[in-house]
Design brief:
By secondary structure, the chain is α/β, with parallel strands linked by helices. The chain contains 15 helices and 21 strands. It has three domains: 55 residues; 166 residues, Threonyl-trna Synthetase, Chain A, domain 2 (Threonyl-tRNA Synthetase, Chain A, domain 2, 2-Layer Sandwich), CATH 3.30.980.10; 316 residues, Rossmann fold, CATH 3.40.50.300. Helix content is 36%, strand content 21%. A hairpin with a 2-residue loop joins strand 4 and strand 5.
């Protein structure tokens, strides 16, 4: 008699007795699972797994398509492997580097394959990227996809994996040493091997939507739309965002820290305190330059915006100091104090309060007070009581002086609709973001949202009484709000500021790991907690005693000299 196991499928909301040793792809067909888009991965006990995963014990199963965050990540990782393989087959002496997300795709560069005898990749100019070369790479990708090559997840002793990757990627081996495991897994497609931080799709034939085009001095890998993965994402201009990425990439190269491996080696050589001082000095210099630019322009209003946990509040406080140095009296207001009372907050499609929408702000009252301030009148400023969900007045009054500038900080500060009658030439707009500019390795980038999510998890736990599970559960609504109300206006900024610090993950690691470990293994949020815990394993911890009390990181981990 055939042995069976009992699984619970969240897609069917039912228990099923199935053959022991069945694969997820066989289970999908057996149960006739249908999703809006092709099934490409599954949660097994709330951890994402490849469809080749075999079931030997009772499990909870949920099948995923590319419209889910985990499904899309698996899709994009597989697309990266096919791109790397195509370049390897066409140009064996050239390596791919996936730099960072931009224009709703991924900016990639090409570099010469580093030989064992080469100490620096800067010894010769990088390969020239021509339209013909990009077209040839895309054609080879399409060929690999048409051949539907199987992708195998394999595991060997770490020392053997290091040896294999040292032959193919001479500067990549220490990523396996950093994990500290006796065995390491990797991926193989034919004779091509590569490493990725999580699961891939079963074969190249699953990739039916992508594009590759020349972009700046490299390539832009375009990916499916996250809500309708049958369509490509629209490539949007992000020239200012690209420029700030490139500026920090050049700075990283000067420090010879491009990947996590480089950072870990530097820390083991007792260079972490020097990196902290350099990173903090760079922030101070950038903020001073922005203050000088404001002093030269003399606007009436300075707007500061950015996504959640980007460091807007700390930036406004540090900018305030630099403006005073320049002889300008900054009057800082938070748009959060102009929220409507909670009972009047608009609700989303699920009937939940939508705190991200611009309509959660009492725009008529806000505009009235700003008009009065600009006309030289005194106003009675509100304070929002987040405990009661009400706007209160505590007798705080403000009247602008001749040497004053109004500094308005908030999620919607760059949205032209908040003060439509103020001429653009009287304003100065700043966008604050947290852009991670080092990668795990050349083929594994760090999502720009991860640094803000980890900041928020630590801050909410320490200061707002929220568990990691609660913070993770709110992420989808936060991301929807940022996508709709923040990102479309970021290129409106006169200047962008990157609040990320090169050592930040290594410090957040100590704070975030115990909080993430409290997330129960039987809830939907465990998948994201597990992913973040795996990600933090790549970093060696760094003590925070050298981090100054005015650092952006202090807003989240504690020890700040600012009052929030």
């Amino acid at each position: 008699m055939e042995q069976t196991i009992t699984i619970y499928c969240k897609n069917t909301h039912a228990y099923h007795d199935v053959p022991r040793g069945i694969s997820l792809i066989e289970l999908k067909d057996l149960l006739g699972i249908q999703l809006p888009y092709p099934i490409i991965a599954a949660y097994v006990n709330y951890k994402v797994e490849n469809l080749d995963f075999l079931l030997y014990k009772p499990k909870d199963i949920e099948f995923l398509d590319a419209s889910s965050p985990s499904g899309m990540r698996a899709y994009v990782r597989t697309l990266n492997m096919v791109l790397a393989c195509a370049i390897n087959e066409l140009f064996p002496d050239i390596d791919l580097r996936i730099e960072h997300p931009i224009s709703k795709g991924y900016y990639c560069t090409l570099q010469w394959h580093q030989s064992k005898d080469t100490d620096s990749e800067d010894e010769k100019e990088p390969p020239v990227v021509t339209p013909e070369k990009v077209q040839a790479i895309k054609a080879r990708m399409l060929q690999i996809i048409a051949e539907n090559r199987p992708i195998y997840e394999e595991e060997k002793q770490t020392k053997e994996v290091i040896r294999m990757f040292a032959e193919r990627y001479n500067n990549e081996s220490s990523i396996f040493e950093a994990l500290g495991n006796p065995y390491c897994r990797y991926f193989r497609m034919g004779d091509f091997i590569d490493y990725y931080t999580n699961v891939l799709l079963p074969s190249s034939g699953y990739l039916n939507v992508f594009d590759l085009q020349p972009f700046q001095d490299g390539l832009l890998l375009r990916i499916p739309n996250r809500t309708n993965p049958t369509l490509l994402e629209d490539a949007i201009p992000q020239d200012k965002m690209f420029s700030i990425f490139q500026e920090y990439n050049r700075w990283n190269k000067l420090l010879r820290i491009n990947n996590v491996n480089d950072f870990n080696v530097a820390c083991k050589q007792n260079m972490s305190f020097g990196l902290i001082k350099l990173a903090e000095a760079l922030h101070e210099k950038k903020i001073a330059q922005i203050a000088d630019s404001i002093a030269a322009k003399r606007p009436k209003i300075v707007f500061i915006s950015g996504a959640s946990s980007s460091g807007k509040t700390t930036f406004s406080k540090r900018l305030q100091i630099q403006l005073l140095v320049d002889g300008i009296r900054p009057e800082v207001l938070s748009m959060d104090d102009y929220f409507v009372n909670r009972v009047d907050t608009p609700k989303d499609e699920n009937g939940q309060y939508d705190f991200e929408t611009v309509n959660a702000v009492d725009l008529p009252f806000f505009r009235e007070q700003m008009k009065d301030l600009l006309e030289g009148k005194e106003v009675n400023l509100p304070t929002y009581d987040f405990t009661k969900g009400e706007r209160v007045f505590k007798g705080n009054k403000l009247k602008l002086q001749k040497d004053s500038v109004l500094v308005i900080e908030g999620l919607h500060a760059l949205n032209p609709c908040i003060l439509p009658d103020v001429p653009r030439e009287l304003t100065y707009k700043i966008y604050v973001s947290a852009l991670t500019t080092i990668n795990i390795d050349n083929h594994n980038w760090i999502p720009t949202t991860d640094i803000r999510l980890l900041r928020r998890i630590v801050r909410d736990y320490k200061y707002r009484g929220f568990s990691a599970r609660e913070t993770i559960a709110r992420c989808p609504s936060v991301i929807r709000g940022e996508t709709k109300w923040v990102y479309p206006f970021q290129e409106e900024a006169d200047v962008m500021f990157n609040s990320a610090l090169i050592f930040e993950f290594a410090v957040l690691k100590r704070h975030a790991e115990p909080i993430l470990q409290e997330v129960p293994k039987f809830c939907d949020e465990y998948s994201e907690a597990h992913r973040l815990l795996k990600f933090l394993q790549y970093f060696v911890p760094v003590p925070e005693r050298e981090i100054p009390p005015t650092s952006f990181l202090r807003e989240f981990v504690g020890g700040s000299s600012f009052r929030y």
